[in-house]
Design brief:
By secondary structure, this protein is of the alpha/beta class. Helix content is 37%, strand content 19%. It is globular, with a radius of gyration of 23 Å. The structure holds adenosine-5'-diphosphate.
Length: 478
Amino acid sequence: MQTNMHIIHITSELAKVAKVGGLADVVYGLSQELSRLGHTVEVILPKYDCLDYAAITELKTEQESLCNSTIWSAKLGNFSLVLIESQHYFHRGKIYGCQDDTKRFLHFCAATTAYLRTRHDPKAILHLHDWPTGAIPAFCKQQSLTNKIVFTIHNLEHQGWCNPHELTSWQLDPTVFQLKEGEFANLLKGAVVLADEITTVSPTYEKEIQTPEKGCGLDHLFQEHKEKLQGILNGIDEDFWNPAIDPHLITPFSTLNLTLEQITNLQEKKRENLRYLRTHLGLAHHPKPVVAAVTRLVSQKAPQLLYHALKRTLEKGGQFILLGSLPTQDLQEEFFQIQESFQHHPDVSILMDQDEALAHLIFAATDFLIIPSLFEPCGLTQMISLRYASIPIARLTGGLIDTVFDIDTSDKPVEERNGFTFTDANPQGVNWALDRALEHSINKKETLQKLILQGTQKNFSWKHAAPAYLALYSKKKP
Ligand code: ADP
């Protein structure tokens, strides 16, 4: 029996209160699971003005004027929250996307470290997530905090670039954050150098970041720090993503311990959700297969291939639903035009939004989820879709390689295969996987039922991933 540990997650996102993408789900799901296992878990995040307070309880002020911030405490589910408030930096109506983002999160790192210092628990494990927390190891060193530090890379594309002066203004040594003297510094590099352990969110991504193709300029750095690098596959929270109790579904359904005979009944329940969704979105009601995408519309997610998939689905007799958030400006005009051109189409619905409730319903109602990503550190939507009996059509990259196994070509045993995959990030690649998926849906219904069953049998919950983190937390500090 493992002894009780004190684990402090430090993050810029948290599901239910401040979500942009998968990082939020991961910190929430892992925290819930670690608490369930009896550990003391705290999550520290900025107190954004756009925070969703619906699920938060016991909110109260803890300290004022600490590092120009107010410190709040609260509860979320079965763990504690610490919220760092700075009106200047976090009252911007959004989480990211400000010109001074690096400065904002440097402030967050400084205030968090000042708070940790007042708490003084040298045994607490500090688990940091992505570049917004990247300066914390350097601040800990500066403040002589000796806690064990685990740094998780959810997405290497963003590194928190800044002028070295930003760091010297906090009395931090910029050389730790720079690849070469005279260059811009980045917060993520500082964490890689100074953290005790580094994890990536899937085993394949751990290998990929050590290559020039996917290392985003840091491949040599990762090779140098290889001994403290480990890939741990993400999970999904079993309650948050549970179609049997999901409040956003019209007809809930269980996907646990099913037999092949029960799949027809499951499909009927999915169709009840689809009937509602079609009416809600103004789509035609006819027996066409439905392909969906639930994604941030950013270059990583291959928006052009998503658009191609939409057109191909129509050609092959299907319907397409796209729920895409637009966190950056660059694709807005193009996608609003695409949306306009399909506005009254009976078989296409395009929603430019971040909508948690609708996302849950889409996973539950549709037949396929397409994920053509150019790179994917882990990806959660394929795990969610499998749990909601929607089959993933995914490009083989990063964590998608570790989780989606092609019905025809995977080297996994036949009974472990769960989707349709493709390798080439081009329209031909998409066609190869999408055409087979739609063909199965129309002409090979029984084979597809087996695939649905196999997809629901794989458990991607935190029950599997949390022990790997616990083992890492328990490892003696080098
Ligand atoms: P990433 O973190 O790169 O965006 P992931 O697949 O790891 O991608 O996680 C995405 C998470 O964000 C999932 O929970 C997914 O349901 C959710 N999500 C993505 N886009 C949207 C959207 N437009 N509306 C609601 N939820 C979304």
